[in-house]
Amino acid sequence: MSRTPLPLRDRLRAAAPSAMRPLLHALLDLALALAAMLLLSLVFMAGWATWLTLAEGGAPPHLAARLQQPGVVAQIAMSVLVTGVPALALFLWRRPADAGERAHSLRQAARPSTWAWAMATGIGVFALASGAVALVERLGVKATPSNLALVEAALRTQPALLVLFAVVLAPLYEELLFRRVVFGRLWAAGRPGLGMLLSGAAFALLHEPPGPGGQPPAAFALLWTAYGLMGVAFAWVYRRTGTLWAAIGAHALHNALGCAALLLGTPG
Fold first, then answer.
1. Is 206:251 a contact under the CB 8 Å cutoff?
2. Of 17, 117, 121, 128, which one has the fewest beta carbons inside 10 Å?
């Protein structure tokens, strides 16, 4: 005996909880990460101001003046602490990999095709982003990433530390947070397209947070688009290869090419 199908409204209502739950969990992951980043930023800056005061042994100047003083090493340490610690904590707490997932990831990482896809993605993203920036600069729009000054200063004074940070550490913890935790949750729920868009948007917001006195609107839109598409590409190669190591490798290669371009004095 055939079952009478539910009316469309009732079918949508029945499907809504299962469709919305992974999205809500992904948004909760991002909210937890943002709260942890803000808290750790405050703790770091308060600790930095206190350390300077004790080190100099004099009367403390105004706190706002203190907050402008961290150098390259301190800023890199702050970035690793503020973003890396929440990423690792959320991975272990909210999206840990079981033994089967780890074994599958390692098997996929051992395939040469995985690294071919990772290399193609890293090079392709860098080439597209560099080409887009060069094109809009010809139109009179100057798009300067907010972290460019730190990267250039580190390249001059701490090149080895910059390579460790940009090519090793940042790709590891950023891919854990945006691709494993955020994208991976929606991918596992059968919503990979939504996961790519959400993880790409969050990736863009982390690198270019909105705020007064920043980029002109056209430059801001270009940087958001570039970072967003970059995040989508890294999620795509993760899904295509079945291992997060491919996304980490593509991200690391992109950053390495960016550092090399700055070192050689070329756009990018």
1. no
2. 17
Q: What token pair was written down for 7?
A: 């009316």
Query: Measuring CA to CA, which residue among 119, 44, 114 is closest to residue 85?
Result: 44
Q: What is the pLDDT of residue 150?
A: 86
- Read off the DSSP letter of residue 3: P
Report whether 207 contacts 147 (CB < 8 A).
yes
Query: What are the backbone dihedrals phi and psi of residue 144, each rounded to the nearest 5 degrees, phi first?
Result: -115, 115
Predicted local confidence at residue 62, as pLDDT: 54
Span 169-198, pLDDT tens digits: 999 999 999 999 999 999 999 999 999 999
Distances (CA, A) of 101 to 65, 96, 118, 185, 220: 48, 9, 19, 13, 38
- Report residue 116 CA to chain centroid gap: 22
Number of CB atoms found within 10 A of residue 35's CB: 11
What is the spatial distance between Cα 204 and Cα 223, in angstroms, rounded to a whole number?
Answer: 8
Tokens of 45: 């800056």
CA atoms of 26 and 50, how far apart (whole Å):
36
For the CA atoms of 40, 248, 176, 19, what is the dihedral angle to 10 degrees?
Answer: 130
197, 256, 199, 143: which is closest to 30 by C-alpha?
199
Q: Which of 265, 232, 257 is nearest to 247 (CA)?
A: 232
| pLDDT beneath 50: ranges in the chain | 1-2, 4, 6, 8-17, 59, 66-67, 266-268
Q: Which pLDDT belongs to residue 19?
A: 61
Total H helices, total E strands in the chain: 13, 0
